[in-house]
Design goal:
Largest sheet of chain A: 7 strands, mixed
Helix content of chain B: under 10%
Radius of gyration of chain A: 13 Å
Number of helices of chain A: 0
Structural class of chain A: mainly beta
Number of strands of chain A: 11
Order of helices and strands of chain B: EEEEEEEEEEEE
Distance between the termini of chain A: 37 Å
Strand content of chain B: over 45%
Number of helices of chain B: 0
Oligomer: heterodimer
Chain lengths: ~110, ~110
């Protein structure tokens, strides 16, 4: 199947700093990418949907100024957590689709804000 | 709006025993249905999917699932569980009017006793 690479897998940052997470589709062009957040022992909550070359669509309750999403090419989307705080600590997962309905997931990024 | 329910938060089975994980969805038409598995600190791996046709679908790792329209269910089964199957399992749906966005159930944590 198609491969989606997410980097970094783990990151620890200081409160107030920004962190960028990358999501790359390695062997296909992703027309749409999704960003999810997962709290411990909970399900995945969709944060935003991004289409290449256009602004991301954020789910209700997700601060677009805090979680900046850029989908500059058909193989790369980035999520930047700005001015991170301890409550932003979570597991972030991206997924990508290529015109069809099957989504391919990255390995996830464990963000810890100290 | 569509929703996915996984009634069992935790399930414990003995190695070698059979397994059934329940999934119910709420949607007016037949959605696309998926089962994913997530190991701790990892992304999601697709086990199987149902789009149309034969209501019994076979997946990887010996898993199968049966779509029952009358019950709005898509339960996951395995005849003999292995210790390596211990993980979190998510049922998900894609509805055609939601831009191919996945909606996840709450997840079921499977523990396997030796």
């Amino acid at each position: 199947g198609a491969v989606v690479s997410q980097h970094p897998s783990r990151v620890i940052c200081k409160s107030g700093t920004s962190v960028k997470i990358e999501c790359r589709s390695l062997d296909f062009q992703a027309t749409t990418m999704f960003w999810y957040r997962q709290f411990p022992k909970q399900s995945l909550m969709l944060m935003a949907t991004s289409n290449e070359g256009s602004k991301a669509t954020y789910e209700q309750g997700v601060e677009k100024d805090k979680f900046l999403i850029n989908h500059a090419s058909l193989t790369l989307s980035t999520l930047t957590v700005t001015s991170a705080h301890p409550e932003d600590s979570s597991f972030y997962i991206c997924s990508a689709i290529s015109g069809g309905t099957e989504a391919f997931f990255g390995q996830g990024t464990r963000l810890t804000v100290v | 709006a569509q929703s996915v329910t996984q009634p069992d938060i935790h399930i414990t089975v003995s190695e070698g025993a059979s397994l059934e994980l329940r999934c119910n969805y709420s949607y007016g038409a037949t959605p696309y249905l998926f089962w994913y598995v997530q190991s701790p600190g990892q992304g999601l791996q697709l086990l199987l999917k149902y789009f149309s046709g034969d209501t019994l679908v076979q997946g990887i790792k010996g898993f199968e699932a049966e779509f029952k329209r009358s019950q709005s269910s898509f339960n996951l089964r395995k005849p003999s569980v292995h210790w390596s199957d211990a993980a979190e399992y998510f049922c998900a749906v894609v509805t055609h009017n939601a831009g191919n966005m996945l909606t996840f159930g709450g997840g079921t944590r499977l523990m396997v006793k030796p």
